[in-house]
Amino acid sequence: MVKYEEQLDAIFTALAHPARRAMLAQLGKGEATVGELAQPFDMSLPAITKHLKVLERAKLISRSKNAQWRPCRLEEAPLRTASGWIEEQRKVWESRLDRLEDYLHSMEKNGERKKR
Amino acid sequence: MVKYEEQLDAIFTALAHPARRAMLAQLGKGEATVGELAQPFDMSLPAITKHLKVLERAKLISRSKNAQWRPCRLEEAPLRTASGWIEEQRKVWESRLDRLEDYLHSMEKNGERKKR
Q1: Chain A from 48 to 87: CB within 8 A of any B CB
Q2: Structural domain containing residue B41
Q3: Is A25 buried (19+), middle (13-18) or exposed (0-12) by CB count in 10 A?
Q4: Does the global pTM surpass 0.90?
C-alpha cells in the first residue's frame, strides 16, 4: 500500500511539469534520444537530464542499455496506474450521485402518495 | 493553451501527495468540514490548511461560502481534465502500436508471397 502511494506520488509529480508532459507526448510517437527530446526546449542539458530523471524515477520512461545512443522509451504502466486512481474516485462519486438520485425519487413518490 | 498547461501543472501537483489524495477520496463520499478532513491525519492545522489550499488552487475542491462551517466539496472537472490528458497519450501510443502491427502483417504477407 505504501509502495502504491509512493508510486502515485512519483507519477503525479512527474506529470506536473509541461516539459515532462511534452517529452512523454513525444515518446508516445516512438523512441527518442536525449538530444531529440531536448530539441524543442530552450533548456540546458543538465535541466533536460533532471527532467528525464524525474520521469525515470516514476518509471514513465526507460532507457535502452544496449544501443550506444541509448534511446528513451515510454512505459505505459504508470500512466495506467495514474488513470486507474482517478477512475476509482469517479466510481465513488458516481455511486454517491446515484444514491442521491434514488433518494430524491423515493421522496417524490412519497410526496405523490400523500397527495392522494 | 498556456492556461490548460497551467491547469494540468496545478492538478497533477495537487494529486502528488498521499494526504491530498486521501482528502479527495473522502470528499468523493460527500462534503466534509476541515475538521473532518483533518481527523485521519497526525498533522497540524496549518499543514492541513496548506494541503487544502493546494487542492483549491487546482480547483479540485471548493468551499461553501454560505454555511458557517464552510464544508469542502469535491469538484470533478479537474479530475476529468487530468484523465483526459492521460487518455490522449493512450490514443497516440495505441495508434502507433496498431500501425506497427499493420506493418508486421504486411511484412509477413510479403514473406509468404515470396515463398510461393
Answers
A1: 74, 76, 79, 82-83, 85-87
A2: 4-115
A3: middle
A4: no
